[in-house]
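Example record for the data management plan.
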Amino acid sequence: MPASTRRTKLKRKPARGTLVRYQDRIAEVMGEARGQRVMIRSIHPDGQERRTAVKWVNLVPLETQLF
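Corresponding structural encoding:
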């Protein structure tokens, strides 16, 4: 990944309701799951809203601009 597009990952667990970026989509943190995971809610490419448990270290904070 080029340095200009590199994003810093979260250094601590995000609070409930926080908007974050997970892979290529924007997600909302729903709450804690087991271990070092959190539940997120996101819209997938097929248009379906899904809730997924992901490791919080893989979440990237949103920048000041969404698009």
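Summary line stored alongside the record: The radius of gyration is 12 Å.
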